[in-house]
Amino acid sequence: MKTRFILFILAAASAGFVRAQNPLVTHMYTADPTARVFNGKLYVYPSSDQVPPEGRKANDFCMPGYRMFVLEGGATWKDLGPVLDQNEVPWGKKDSFAMWAPDCIEKDGKYYYYYPAAPLDGSAFRRIGVGVSDKPEGPFNWETNYIDGVSGIDPGLFVDDDNKAYLYFGGGQELFVAPLKENMKEIAAEPVKVEHLPAGYKEGSFLFKRDGKYYFTFAHTFPDEGYTIGYAMGDSPLGPFVYQGKIMDNISSGTNHHSVEKYQDKWILFYHWWDISGFNKLRSMRADYLEFKQDGTIRKVIPTLRGIGTPGIGELIQVDRYNEINGCRIAFFENGNERGWYICETEPNSYVRFDRVNFTGAKKIQARIACGQTFGKFEIRQNNQWGKLIAEFPVHYTGGWNSWETVEAKIDEPVDGVHNLVVLFKPDWGGRKLVNLDWLKLTK
Question: Is the N end or the C end of the chain the one with fewer CB atoms within 10 Å?
Answer without folding.
Answer: C
